[in-house]
Prior knowledge:
alpha/beta
Amino acid sequence: MDSIRITGGVPLSGTIAISGAKNAALPLMTCGLLTDERLVLSNVAKLADIATMSELLAQHGIEVTHAGRDVTLGGKITNTEAPYEIVRKMRASFLVLGPLLARLGQARVSLPGGCGIGTRPVDLHLKGLEAMGASIELDGGYVEARAPKGLKGAEIVFPFVSVGATENLLMAASLADGITVLKNAAREPEITDLAKCLIAMGAKIEGLETDTLTIHGVTSLHGAHHDILPDRIETGTYACAAAITGGDVFLENARASDLGAVLTALNEAGVIITEAENGFRVTRANGLHGVDVTTEPFPGFPTDMQAQFMALMTVADGASLITENIFENRFMHVQELSRMGAKINIQGSSAIVRGVKHLTGAPVMATDLRASFSLVLAALAAQGETTISRVYHLDRGYEAVEAKLAACGARIQRLV
Ligand code: EPZ
């Protein structure tokens, strides 16, 4: 199993190109199930999760061709079952349910099971599809969904915001009979990106960037070309890397407007963001200051930035209260950061971080994707050497980490 060794203490300096967003690319790839025609996605990052999605779609019969950063999808669906072996590796696989059901009136998709960061049920996806006329049964760990006469438009009010449920139902509703209204829908930039691609494929969707999406179902969708938006979480992560090392880094392709509350929190912490036409520069005036953050749906502070921001706060002046409201078990990085000298106490869903003068390198273990990068950040700032094991978590969602950081002067090496 690969690990990464980092010798800390180098202020990062240079340019990091931000890749296409993983969490936009995954649902966008499932749009390949909504038409037989060619769907070309550009700016697709080379990630383990993208490879997993390609494998899943291929076994549904879709031809998936990778050429540089373009992924072309096309062809007929030959199999409507998404097997446990793939779904358990990556929960985003569950997003094939809506498209398969809308297109062919049936789907058998494995339930994803447990996850390292929380229980993560899929009840909202299922209730929404039921409201659209599907019959849902559970059989041997699989969801058996049927809508032999097609899905019908419905008004669906989500009791709380779910990115995945909004995406699944948005795709399903695009091919349903009649009008679907999704209320209290997620409005993350990845949802807007998905809606834009669906519109390019012939879908009729109103309310982009708001919490109410109105979808006028159409009978078929066609091929399209869609350019995926830059990854806002990768952007925020590298902004933290520049800040924690006291460096000066230009984040090429980054879109400040997609960062929501992350930008505000970075500013309050003493990080300076200077916007340019094709990205923004991240520097620091003086030291870092403790800032309180609470994770919330967009435009609030994203749960996917919580671990990285916590790493930043471990070396800030003063205390920081970090509250995790989205997932119930997303503090796995705390114990690992503590091994490097961080002072963090967990109280229920909050962590109190008391900044220390410096962290010290140590052997640590990655537990999930974002937690992994919080350890990379801590290692970049720490005195001495850190070895991070289980970095396959990192490879799921961050492209070319060593190359991007090494180009800015980091002493980082992969051990295979
Ligand atoms: C997406 O997951 C992201 N994944 C996650 O990114 C991200 O952390 C999360 O949204 C929140 O922003 C992808 O986009 C592929 P949710 P998703 O449905 O869609 C509960 C990363 O690091 N819930 O918005 O699964 C759920 O348990 C990752 O890149 C239900 O109870 O998240 C959670 O507490 C990890 N029932 C909350 O809602 C449901 O049916 C929000 O989850 C659905 C969700």
